[in-house]
Amino acid sequence: MAKEKIVVNNIKSVITDYLNNAQFNIYIAVAWITDKDLVNILISKSKSGLDVRMILIDDEINLGIVKLLKELKSCGAKITCRNIHHKYCIIDHRIIITGSYNWTNMASNRQNGENIVIIEDNYEEVQKLLKSFIELENSNEPFKKITKNKPKDFNEQIGVIFPVTLVHLIGQLDDHILVKVRFENNVEPFLLFDGSIKEHFQREKTVKIKFLGLKNYKEGHIGLAELVK
């Protein structure tokens, strides 16, 4: 008999338990995955012979776990990049985990702001998501790199002050805070700020920033900026 339950507390712990108990396969379609604990479980499961597959967005938010994703792929997992906003996982072709929860550190630290729904043994619904997952998986190239392209004009903008709108505070990336901003031409890049941005961040707030240059990663480049007070 099919069972459903809603979880609003200790979500990471619940997902962890279900992943650890998986016996055959784990299919994940989650836009952003930065929680290394969850990825390490997937690595362990892939090493033990489970069929692990993942679909995620190819953007800067996922940059921090590129090394782990490459390790996961080297263990036999299939990783595909796709422009999605899904947040679901299918385990052993019988369990669905879905809801608002991205598999990120920010989500795990957010109190009373997320939910998941767990559906067990509803095979009709499982088949619907499996069909969607396979279509997504087959419609894109396998995972290669995140943020491959270096904007040609960034170095020319060092020291320039811009008005931007703060869109979304993503979270910690190395020693900086990753933030999505919107320029006046509606371009929405990700930029790195120091920790003081947390005190001033407010969604849709317009501020002035000074562009400081690029922070280089093996997999790409992200702009550095600071607030102008």
Shape: elongated
Largest sheet: 7 strands, mixed
Mean pLDDT: 86
Secondary-structure-derived class: alpha+beta
Provide the succession of SSEs.
Answer: EHEHEHEEEHEHEEEHEE
The count of strands amounts to 12
Radius of gyration: 19 Å
Low-confidence stretches: 144-152
- N- and C-termini, Cα separation: 60 Å
* Count of discrete alpha- or pi-helical segments spanning 4 or more residues: 6
Write the layout of secondary structure elements.
Elements: E1 3-7, H1 11-20, E2 25-30, H2 36-47, E3 51-56, H3 66-74, E4 78-81, E5 87-91, E6 95-99, H4 105-109, E7 116-120, H5 123-137, E8 161-173, E9 176-182, E10 190-193, H6 197-200, E11 206-217, E12 220-227
Parallel strand pairs: 2-3, 3-4, 10-12
Antiparallel strand pairs: 1-7, 2-5, 5-6, 6-7, 8-9, 8-11, 9-10, 11-12
What does this structure look like?
The structure is a single chain. The chain has about 230 residues and is α+β, with helices and mostly antiparallel strands. It has six helices and twelve strands. Helix 1 packs parallel to helix 2 and helix 2 packs parallel to helix 3. The N and C termini lie far apart (about 60 Å).
Question: Brief description of this entry?
Answer:
With 229 residues, the protein is an alpha+beta fold.
What tags apply to this protein structure?
single chain; 6 helices; alpha+beta; seven-stranded mixed β-sheet; elongated; 229 residues
